[in-house]
Amino acid sequence: xxxxxxxxxxxxxxxxxxxxxxxxxxxxxxxxxxxxxxxxxxxxxxxxxxxxxxxxxxxxxxxxxxxxxxxxxxxxxxxxxxxxxxxxxxxxxxxxxxxxxxxxxxxxxxxxxxxxxxxxxxxxxxxxxxxxxxxxxxxxxxxxxxxxxxxxxxxxxxxxxxxxxxxxxxxxxxxxxxxxxxxxxxxxxxxxxxxxxxxxxxxxxxxxxxxxxxxxxxxxxxxxxxxxxxxxxxxxxxxxxxxxxxxxxxxxxxxxxxxxxxxxxxxxxxxxxxxxxxxxxxxxxxxxxxxxxxxxxxxx
Length: 300
Fold this sequence. Notes:
The protein is of the alpha/beta class and 300 residues long. It has two domains: 2-203, Spore Coat Polysaccharide Biosynthesis Protein SpsA, Chain A; 212-297. The protein contains 13 helices and nine strands. It has helices at 2-11, 26-36, 57-64, 79-88, 107-117, 134-137, 160-166, 178-188, 212-230, 233-254, 258-268, 270-275, 282-287; strands at residues 16-22, 44-50, 69-72, 93-97, 101-103, 121-129, 146-148, 156-159, 192-203. Strands 1, 2, 3, 4, 5, 6, 7, 8 and 9 form a nine-stranded mixed beta sheet that branches. α2 (26-36) links the parallel β1 and β2. The model is unreliable at 1-11 (pLDDT under 50).
């Protein structure tokens, strides 16, 4: 009887799909996959989407992590790779990680508990911390969860049915601000994004860095697209004027054309973005803060 009761308890734990998208960060990915073996939660499937790496990532996955569901793409699709992984996921909940981040041992257990407690919670935003604080976290003082207007793809739980309702990441963004775009649609649909200080993911500093120019370009272009896609026209004009001013100011101050190129490319692609405009509720707009000025710090 005790054995049967234990089996029932085990099967009650919903499947969680861990989705990691990677590109040319083999050693970071290895570290993340090894850390996932230490989780207190057992009912996991791990999906790794490789965006056509050329650093031996495929060999690492095929030879060292055969239990992982690996998807090898013929080209680098950026955030669309994450979409492909999430669409392949069989779990009731999805845990998003970067190739250089990993959850604390009890994080998934706590995440599932939160989703069970309230069906209106669509996304659980983890507390992203540096691994140097791991000892300190053993005595972490629990703080109250806070409603949030965004999340980091380096550590976040998503209720899979929410994605089926509001859609996935915008593939045209390729990189950066994709989480903000999805967050707006989740909040607009009436679900909550909640940040839990005691649900922790650790984000290492990768030895393989991305070009600052690339980061500045995608942040700027995608910020323009978010404004065009979601802001009502009566609020759009002053925001765009402010943004254009900052593009020219940052270009002169930092002596770069990357912001101007991003702005021009955003305007060239604005037709498709405007055709997919979403009417955002007023209460959502009041809550959300788009990080306009932060965009112009990435090239420095």
